[in-house]
TrEMBL record:
Gene3D superfamilies: 1.10.3730.20. Keywords: Cell membrane, Membrane, Transmembrane, Transmembrane helix, Transport. This is Guanidinium exporter. It comes from Aquamicrobium zhengzhouense. It comes from the Bacteria. It is a multi-pass membrane protein.
Amino acid sequence: MAWAYLFFAGLFEIGWAVGLKYSHGFTKLVPSVFTVGAMAISLFLLGLALRTLPLGTAYAIWTGIGTIGTAILGVMLFSEPAEIMRILCIVMIAAGIIGLKLVSP
């Protein structure tokens, strides 16, 4: 169950990261409320996952999921560049996440 908590915590991290962009520095109410809510849920789920998973592994995977998802949505939603080196780096982060999952309890 801890891995599921961690996965969803990472998804909510993506939500709050994208929400930060839409909130325009917390000047827009609805995106700001969404962002703060997603932050709280993400941290709560991370805390649940940390009951059984090693801190370093869980934190690295949590931030990795957030990084990958946010980078992909940055390209899709905000026309950020999708250069080959950027994509390669995202793939390397994904490989690191998979590696940590494979070697962790």
